[in-house]
Amino acid sequence: MPDSPRKKNILGKPGPGGKRPNNQVWIFISLIIVFITISYFTSQSSGIVITPSRFEDMVKSNDVSRIVFINGQNTVEITLKQEALQNAKYKTELDGNSFLGFNNGPHYVMKKYFSSADKFQEYYNEFKAQSKIPKAQDIPVEYEDRTTIMDFLSTWGFLILIVLFFWLMMRRMTGNAGPGGQIFNIGKSRAALFDAENKVKITFDNVAGLDEAKEEVKEIVEFLKNPSKFTKLGGKIPKGALLVGPPGTGKTLLAKAVAGEAAVPFFSLSGSDFVEMFVGVGAARVRDLFKQAKEKAPCIVFIDEIDAIGRSRGKGQMPGSNDERENTLNSLLVEMDGFATDSGVIILAATNRPDVLDNALLRPGRFDRQIGIDKPDIVGREAIFKVHLGPIKLAKDIDAKKLSAQTPGFAGAEIANVCNEAALIAARKDKKAVDMEDFQDAIDRVIGGLEKKSKIISPEEKKIVAYHEAGHAVAGWYLEHADPLVKVSIVPRGVAALGYAQYLPKEQFLYQTEQLIDEMCMTLGGRAAEEIIFGKISTGALSDLERVTKVAYSIVTVYGMNEKIGNISFYDSKQNEYGFSKPYSEDTAKTIDEEVKKIIEDAYNRTKQLLTDKKTELEVLAKELLEKEILFQSDLEGLIGKRPFEKQTTYEAFTNNNGQDKKEEKEEEPTVNSETENTSDETPEATNESAVETSDSNTTSEDKKEE
Predict the structure, then answer these.
(1) Integer distance in angstroms from the first to the last C-alpha of the chain?
(2) Of 327, 328, 438, 550, whose Cβ has the fewest other Cβ atoms within 10 Å?
(3) What's the rounded Cα separation, in Å, for the pair 326 and 316?
């Protein structure tokens, strides 16, 4: 029979059949209650408090049988004679306090009237002399040293608390790590094991937009399930696969799907799980991880964010110093492909920083495959939207194709965020279903930030923003190689954004000089429009200028597209591994600066000339923006006519289903660490405009991939 589910007690702790409940809290509470009770009854059982005058009356009446002075407490205890207890004046009073239960005394006390035993003895002697108490009634004073629980706690309580605290800490450390305790098992691996009993529910069906990467990892899972299919042809299973890609593209999700699909044990942990303050712990955990994995072989080990321990060795290290991270990496390298390597363990790892990984880690035999997981293209985004739209109650007008066209450059995590934001926005408006308007608001929210309805903008500033955005739109509309506008808004968003424009670039990997120049001209359209209309410029073009400068320097120093510099690239794919700051002379640097300035100046003058010729269209567009605040591509066609080019825009081609139904074979893309590289369809240009710093920022997923 299968085991019955573990029962829980009223505190939510596992009961019989589960883990032993933690009773330490209850022990503490019980001890506190006992201490309070004892101290209360101890303080109450000392007798009824009286004054010295009342004490004198008792002595005069010959009712006292015993007098005791408690040293340290400065308290006098008075015990009455048995015959005096029958007296009405005492009986009524003592019966009212019968719960004290002391027939043998003490019955009364005097507290804090005498600071010492000598003072009390002096007072008592003086009282007897004045009152002429006969010797027969003279009760001698007894002196006692007595300690109560409260006195004990006030003296030793703090030390006891410290000891209890450390005892509890040790119990926690030893209780959470099984036999021996965590403090003694610090070198044990922290990997989470997923097997037949504890299985991940995510499968390959939950992964969309990563078809090529899915095929790669599916093959690994297939090999583990049916190894004879490959071994009969002489093939060997890959020892490791490295998932590489920007944040949010689905690397960890793909690993979860492998865990859900694989019929073998799956160990999961992060690179930081090997890091500890103690020397040698990282290497010990690596050895323990592979020891457990070999016992479960065949199995898969997944290390997320492997760059935490896999960084190149020797960089930035002081001579003679010990680098714990390097020891951990060395241990990992040996375990992955050393003398005692077990072929039954497959390593999956993920990172968004492949450039910092050690070369020894990347070689075949350790990571035989590097699986690139890039941001999805327009077709991939549609597939991802369909996955995330599944649980949402949608209106009839929702089209995943249109949503994917309006979210260029979005990674899978951002698409999931858009869907969730749309559902929250619809719920906030008490709608019964999520419609297209909610998704539009969600996309704007993710790209430009939260709409700032409370931000008060002066009419002059709003006019500047409108003409600035209209300048971008008109320039992009009439430049053949520029990306035409999809949407433009002058609604304040985010911290400092006063407006933004969204574009949909076509899917391509190689750019010609004319295309880069047109893109620069479109980016400079905002500042050019300000100068033409107002005769002045504002700070709203900060990020425009930043982007244009990067493109111009890439043209000259990276791509070799400048006639004066020639076919030379100063790009260092090794990230200055050998410490050279720049591989050119000061004269060449001066020439580069001059050529960059000339390219930007020519592009700006060209943009000014274009907008001067199209000033009427610029005015029309800006006035419509001031009135409506948000314009779409269809609005531009109605206001200033269709683009004077036969080719459809990327947005029109895709939404009309006339676009690329089949992808052309992709040429090898250049590995360039520059903002102008790899501007594929995954590039929304969202220009955020502000009167201060980050205005008109082209936040595009054309924030292009940095390698």
Answers:
(1) 55
(2) 550
(3) 12
